[in-house]
Amino acid sequence: MTRDSKVTAAEVSSGDVDTDDGFDLVNDAPPPPTASTQVAPPAAPPAEASTSVSRTSHPSPSPKKIKKSKRNTTVLEYESGSGSGPPIPPKPASYASQIEAIASKMDATSLDRSIGDLSETTDDGYTKRLYNSLKGHLDWGREKEVLIAVMGMTGAGKTTFISKATGKKNLKIGHSLESCTRDISVHSTKIDGTIVHFVDTPGFSDTYLSDTDVLHLIADYLASAYKQDVKLHGIIYLHPISEIRMTNPATKNLEMFRKLTGEKNLKNVILATSMWDRVTIEEGESREQELCNKFWSILLTFGARTARYGGTPESAHEIAGMLMDNKPFYVQLQEEMKDNKALADTSAGREVMQEIDRMKQQHERELSEMKEMMQRTQEENNQAAMKALEEHYKKMLENMERTLKDERRMNEDKVRGLEDRIAALESRPPPCNIM
């Protein structure tokens, strides 16, 4: 039935009002307030009449008496002339049971279909307010989940951080120069009632993976996340404070990170220094100041924040908590792939291509020098030295071939755009683990 904008206490008491549970979200929803439905209270209402309950908000009067109707419905009678009755509560009690029953059988998608296109409403946003209110009911009781990526150069302590944050001690943690995070993995825990998923990523300048391999791994993960409409809430970028100076791999990692994330998303980034137990407080503070003033200055200008990771679960949770209330977002690499760009044409891809060109020039220079050295050694008839040089020259050729292979892979990558990359991922099992 269609509910009138005013329901009297007498009607409730007499049982004339239909209170069955067959409530339709759209057709039976209260109509938007209009001039015709907003009836002003009478100037002098009869003393014996119960005042009608208006849907507009008024100061709450004191009830005159409480009585039970034949249908066991509590009826409040108010003093005459005290206004139009108590204000409607934020979540109407009369509709709560119906909404909860329907919400258990619905999701946000079905609600979207039932409400229709909100841009076509002409009732001053009333339908949109109803939509948002009902959608809020659908989220009652659902646990909040957030996704946080942990990034940084090899050896920065990414996996150790996640192990402390999640309490999982079976994660493979590297204590040598060889990188353990060969693939992207996701580990979950609960922090302050919120489910937090940490994404463990390989760093650029990896021991076994080339920068091209790492970029493709990250691009594939981000494409899968986009397909499932999963967004990041933040990124923790780890840097070991124990590093005496900013090495070339560290500088390259930082630049790749900035190009992959995008300046507009840097406000969702925490630049966390790790391994404070390996330095004195004076050494650590001096290096931290240098990082902030020189290497991190651009990132901090765009809103990135700093933190010190103390190596404890509490410290890891505190850093994660700095990101948990962020608005979810897509990183720049996802946005660029969505715009139908090939990976080599993205900001991060162009950075990798520049590094490939630099490595090619370095290999060519080193090979040329090695040839000259081998020629001089051959003239001196030093067989032992000649054999060692030949072995070294062979390894240099292998490095050159890997660089050329990466270049071909970037140039010949015909997966253009996000949708094509997603289709390619779906054609090869197993599916990527997002959360």
TrEMBL record:
User: What segments bear the compositional bias annotation Low complexity?
Assistant: 35-52
Coiled-coil intervals, chain numbering: 353-428
Annotated region described as Disordered, given as residue ranges: 1-94
Q: Does the keyword Coiled coil apply?
A: yes
Query: Which InterPro entries does this UniProt record tie to the protein?
Result: GIMA/IAN/Toc, GTP-bd, P-loop_NTPase
Could you list this entry's UniProt keywords, alphabetically sorted: Coiled coil
List, for all copies, the residue spans of the domain called G: 148-236
Highest rank taxon of the organism:
Eukaryota
According to the UniProt entry, its GO molecular function terms are: GTP binding
**Per its record, how is this protein called by name?**
G domain-containing protein
